[in-house]
Write a structure and sequence with these properties.
Layout (H helix, E strand, L loop, with lengths): L1 H15 L5 H10 L6 H4 L2 H22 L4 E3 L9 H5 L10 H7 L13 E2 L18 H18 L7 H7 L13 H10 L3 E2 L23 E3 L1 E6 L5 H11 L2 E5 L8 E6 L11 E11 L3 E7 L11 E5 L12 E5 L1
Parallel strand pairs: 7-10
Antiparallel strand pairs: 1-7, 2-8, 3-4, 5-11, 6-8, 8-9, 9-10
Helix pairs in contact: 7-8, 7-9
The structure holds 2-acetamido-2-deoxy-beta-D-glucopyranose (4 copies).
Keywords: Disulfide bond, Hydrolase, Protease, Signal, Thiol protease, Zymogen
Family: Belongs to the peptidase C1 family.
Pfam families: Inhibitor_I29, Peptidase_C1
Length: 332
């Protein structure tokens, strides 16, 4: 009943404020802190952004009026171009498929699986982070599981530095704000024998000179003991690995609707069977309404994105390739 009322209420609003109406665009700009100075360019930006906004608005309304297991809505991404949106990703393809295979493990423990598991509110996960307009998701994807495992072992929390990876991990397949791969990031942290603390090496969101040195012991907040891939396309193995290792790094394919996710279980068919382009962290799993299984996925687009920074993605069908490259890391 509540849902129906909301639906009727939104129809009413749409009836009054049809497409093209300035008031919703103005409200959007106000809510999202957007400000395009028309005096600077004769309104070029304003008109471009407004046109994109109403195009997305039409897509959002169309989607939400259909029978879908997830809903989408406006956010800071609503008036960005496709090129601008792509900057918020940053995972390249896995550097070496051969390496991927040779490193793959099955979880050691074969205990009975609980029906749900969720680290989302764990003391050992820091608040949601924001990568900004820098394709550094691979660094965040590498750091979060390491922070978790270190915290679980030491029983105290230490926020670690993504900027160290952005600045210093230039030896392999990782390219600062231009993409990278979380498993090679762990390889780098192993080589240099340390992951710096965030407060000593804070995030800037652009590539700079490396400030970490092998002698920089006082900077170190954690060290990598081991890491590897979980067997590919095996959701059960991932569930067991979540229990055994904590949150898992993985890669997914992000397509348009993903940017505007608000609630429900994400199951867009558009993201299937395309190359992965974004790194995220799986922090749990569950089942919605006794019908649809999902992963609880942590993103790095700030707390005001998605469901307070998180998204539920369909589980067990390799949705958006989320089950193709899951990986774990263990700290000392
Ligand atoms: C909506 O989709 C679900 C799952 O696909 C289906 O079971 C249900 O019958 C659909 N409802 C309507 C009204 O089409
Ligand atoms: C850089 O790459 C070389 C060759 O792959 C490797 O031997 C070396 O340990 C790497 N150095 C760092 C700092 O990752
Ligand atoms: C890595 O750092 C730890 C702690 O400072 C030290 O005990 C260890 O010997 C180092 N390992 C290598 C290979 O340098
Ligand atoms: C998937 O993983 C589970 C748990 O580790 C294992 O028992 C099972 O054999 C795996 N399935 C395949 C097809 O390898």
């Amino acid at each position: 009943m509540k849902l129906l009322l909301v639906f009727l209420a939104s129809l009413f609003v749409l009836g009054i404020n049809g497409q093209g109406d300035d008031s919703r665009w103005k409200e959007y700009k106000r809510l999202n802190g957007k400000n395009y100075n028309e005096k600077l360019d004769g309104g070029k930006q304003e008109n471009l952004r407004k046109a994109i906004f109403f195009q997305r608005d039409a897509n959002i309304r169309k989607h939400n009026s259909g029978n879908h297991s997830f809903q989408i809505g406006h956010n800071k991404f609503s008036d960005l171009t496709g090129k601008e949106l792509a900057v918020f990703l940053g995972t390249t393809s896995p550097p070496s498929p051969k390496l991927h295979k040779s490193m793959t493990v099955l979880p050691k423990r074969q205990t009975r699986l609980p029906t749900t598991l969720n680290y989302r509110n764990s003391f050992c996960l820091p608040p949601i982070k924001a990568q900004g307009s820098c394709g550094s998701c691979w660094a965040f994807t590498a750091i979060t599981p390491l922070e978790f495992d270190r915290c679980r072992k030491k029983r105290s929390f230490s926020v670690l530095s993504e900027q160290q990876l952005v600045d210093c991990d230039t030896n392999s397949t990782n390219y600062g704000c231009n993409g990278g791969w979380y498993v090679t990031a762990w390889s780098h942290l192993t080589t240099v024998n340390g992951s710096a603390s965030e407060f000593l090496y804070p995030y800037k969101g652009s590539k700079g000179k490396c400030k970490y040195c092998p002698e920089c012991k006082s900077m170190v907040g954690a060290r990598v003991s081991s890491y590897g891939y979980i067997q590919s396309k095996n959701a059960t193995a991932m569930q067991l690995a979540l229990q055994e290792y904590g949150p898992l790094a993985t890669a997914i394919t992000v397509v348009g609707s993903f940017y505007y996710y608000t609630v429900g279980v994400y199951d867009d068919e558009a993201c299937d069977n395309l190359p992965v382009n974004h790194g995220v962290v799986v922090v749990g799993y569950g089942r919605y309404n006794d019908i649809i299984d999902y992963w609880v996925v942590r993103n790095t687009w700030g707390e005001n994105w998605g469901d307070q920074g998180y998204i539920n993605i369909q589980r067990g069908v390799n949705k958006c390739s989320i089950e193709t490259y899951p990986a774990f890391v263990v700290s000392y």
